[in-house]
Design brief:
This protein has one domain. It has six helices and nine strands; from the N terminus they run H-H-E-H-E-E-E-H-H-E-E-E-E-H-E.
């Protein structure tokens, strides 16, 4: 009996030892969790900071690349210009252009006539048989707009849109009329006055409504309206500035489009335009407080500012 009691007592002692060495106490688990928290939390914060900085850098890079691509496109387009309208011309013809009924959200900053190359536009015939095609040129009217209409499809910044209408081409009047854009009417050089006066008298084909749309070129253009403190209006060292930021009339930007995100300095006599674009990368990373402030140096890097000076071919002459 004593032997049996001793064996049971010995077995209980062994069992208690095994239970003690086979796991962790509650205090040990809590200490382990605390240490893990102290190590992981700074690492998580560091990773989040890296990801946030990378997102900001990517926003700046993408915006600058898109602004540069847009400026290159506009510059190539302008190289074919035969006449560029100054602010007086914009005021004269603005009501002939699209969105003239929505002037606080659409402004035609850069408007010009260009020679449009048409590959294979003319049929070459031998008798009644077409034996080939020749290239030709037509005149086109081009307008680049600054747009800020609150369309949720786009960002909360402004954007630039492009409008173009072209004359028709072909060997017969029927072919020319069939390929001409609705609303197009060629300028006349037969009126009295100098070239500028004649070009400012242009009117659209009043019997036709436009069917061409203003197509988007680039988004995330700075929408900050100009003021006398944080975002003063720009100036042109040479040429005539479009839009105007003070005064009255159709050459003056008003409402949402009174921004220096897109403006030009034009010399109509020399067919030269200096194009200025300013992007807004801040609108890519946050929804509020996205305005430019010249006194906030830490935010200036989010507003890339690019310029290009372009001379058109300027082939128009008048008596």
């Amino acid at each position: 009996m004593k032997l049996l009691t001793w064996l049971l007592s010995h077995q209980l002692k062994i069992s208690k030892v095994k239970q003690k060495t086979g796991g962790f106490t509650l205090i040990e688990l809590l200490v382990g969790l605390l240490l893990a928290f102290l190590v992981i939390t700074p690492l998580m914060g560091f990773m989040i900071s890296i990801m946030e900085n990378d997102r900001k850098e990517q926003a700046k890079t993408n915006t600058e690349q898109e602004i540069k691509a847009a400026l290159d496109y506009i510059s190539r387009d302008l190289q074919q210009a035969v006449y560029i309208y100054d602010s007086e011309g914009i005021a004269e013809i603005r009501d002939q252009l699209p969105k003239s009924d929505n002037k606080t959200q659409f402004f035609p900053v850069l408007v010009f006539w260009k020679r449009q190359y048409i590959s294979g536009g003319l049929a070459v015939k031998s008798g009644a048989t077409t034996v080939g095609n020749d290239d030709t040129f037509v005149y086109s009217l081009v307008a680049y707009y600054i747009i800020n209409d609150g369309d949720s499809t786009w960002s909360k910044a402004a954007r630039i849109g492009r409008f173009q209408i072209s004359n028709g081409y072909g060997s017969t009047e029927t072919e020319i009329n069939n390929t001409r854009d609705a609303g197009f009417k060629l300028f006349s050089l037969q009126d009295e006055g100098d070239l500028k006066t004649k070009m400012n008298k242009w009117v659209k084909n009043s019997s036709e409504a436009y069917t061409q749309d203003i197509l988007p070129l680039v988004d995330y253009i700075d929408q900050t309206t100009t003021d006398t403190t944080t975002n003063p209006a720009p100036t042109c060292s040479t040429g005539d500035m479009i839009p105007k930021y003070s005064g009255s009339g159709d050459s003056v930007a008003t409402g949402n489009v009174k921004t220096r995100g897109f403006y030009v300095c034009v010399d109509s006599d020399k067919t030269v335009a200096e194009v200025h674009l300013r992007g807004n990368a801040l609108a890519r990373i946050q929804s509020n407080n996205i305005n430019f402030d010249k006194d906030n140096t830490s935010l200036k890097m989010y507003f890339p500012d690019l310029t290009s000076r372009v001379r058109g071919i300027g082939f128009l002459f008048t008596q």
